């Protein structure tokens, strides 16, 4: 029955998604929308706005009105004037392209510091109609006098606020989750548009269009010189379908690729190849809707710390909604090849950055044994990242089941199957939705 309800719900959403632009009058000049610019936080990228962008387009926003500003968060003190100059240029470009007089600005975490400093200049603040401050800087007044919504994660310190702003606490959500969640979208949309959205869901499309960037982590620089291959894979095994990729993109200085079309409900692998480097294989849950903020990040600096060898597989699992491992019945389950890697040590929650959105599992010491009780160096001190010693044999060739139960809710459990590629030549990355389809 649950499968039938899900199938009926998906079909209904597909029909609604196709009809929604007509219902909202989009494309007939009946809706005037203010463009939005999102500024990410530390170790972040435009990927933290990916789900919200799809919710905005589900409510009639054209993709042309949704942009992100990306920068190297590890060097923000040195490059802040440059980041502000780039934001100037992006706002001017958006105003010219859309005819809008002003834009709406959003900042998350460190991005709120970038935004507050930007809005402190009256000439710059004059170009911003409204500002959304997501779990970041506090203030004694709305930055630059711009009408402000301040969203706060309920798991964070109580009592945080921007005086004179609309302050909303999203209960039982953590720092990254509050940037990507459905509940936060409701507050964002209501603040920006003055009314509730038509839907808070991401409405599916039959033939979504996909584009994005291949970048270095955390610099957000384009991974120039690499090649990106797009493969269809079998959902039950992760095995490639066909001998040639469906699409091939040569990556230039900006890291951009696409757009290309996918089919709703099917599974895809996006592989980054560069001479002299290990291949990075990204496996996805089925794409739901046209998505132009796909970020394929290559963490070159972490490479020396991830054990490689012909006999074991190294996997990374990413979800822009923190994994919880010390919250009792609300803990996530992240089962890799039959082993639940979630525990209070590896997936501790607490202060900002302590909770993790990316898990790295690899065979420390190449000894063919797992030890899930400790976080190997350097992942312990790194914000939003965690790891453990996980042995996944790379021989014989077979598929590895990555199974997630979000917040312990069995009715929302999902699975991605991937091949057990040897870590001597490959890294396997599973990108999970930060929403429940």
Please tell me about this protein's structure.
This protein has 437 residues and is of the alpha/beta class. It folds into 2 domains: 7-193, Alpha/Beta hydrolase fold, catalytic domain (Rossmann fold); 209-431, Immunoglobulin-like (Sandwich). It has 7 helices and 21 strands. The chain has helices at 2-24, 50-58, 76-98, 110-119, 122-125, 177-180, 182-193, and strands at 36-39, 66-69, 103-108, 128-134, 148-153, 166-170, 209-216, 227-233, 247-250, 256-261, 267-273, 279-284, 291-298, 315-323, 333-336, 339-340, 356-362, 385-389, 399-405, 414-419, 426-431. The chain has an 8-stranded mixed β-sheet. A 6-stranded parallel β-sheet has the order 2-1-3-4-5-6, with helices on both faces. A hairpin with a 2-residue loop joins β15 and β16 (339-340). The protein starts with a helix and ends in a 6-residue tail after the last strand.
Q: How is the topology of this model organized?
A:
Layout: H1 2-24, E1 36-39, H2 50-58, E2 66-69, H3 76-98, E3 103-108, H4 110-119, H5 122-125, E4 128-134, E5 148-153, E6 166-170, H6 177-180, H7 182-193, E7 209-216, E8 227-233, E9 247-250, E10 256-261, E11 267-273, E12 279-284, E13 291-298, E14 315-323, E15 333-336, E16 339-340, E17 356-362, E18 385-389, E19 399-405, E20 414-419, E21 426-431
Parallel strand pairs: 1-2, 1-3, 3-4, 4-5, 5-6, 7-13, 12-21, 14-21, 17-18
Antiparallel strand pairs: 7-10, 8-9, 8-11, 11-12, 14-17, 15-16, 15-19, 19-20
Main pleated sheet: 8 strands, mixed
The whole-angstrom Rg is: 21 Å
| CATH topology category name of the largest domain | Immunoglobulin-like
Helical residues, percent = 10-25%
CATH class of the largest domain: Mainly Beta
Shape: globular
| Average pLDDT reading | 94
**DSSP helix count?**
7
Number of strand elements:
21
Strand order of the largest sheet: 9-8-11-12-21-14-17-18
CATH architecture of the largest domain: Sandwich
SSE run: HEHEHEHHEEEHHEEEEEEEEEEEEEEE
Q: Uncertain runs with pLDDT below 50, 5 residues or more?
A: 1-5, 25-30
Hey, roughly how much beta strand do the residues contain? 25-35%
Structural class: alpha/beta
Distance from N terminus to C terminus (CA atoms, Å) equals 17 Å
- Total number of domains: 2
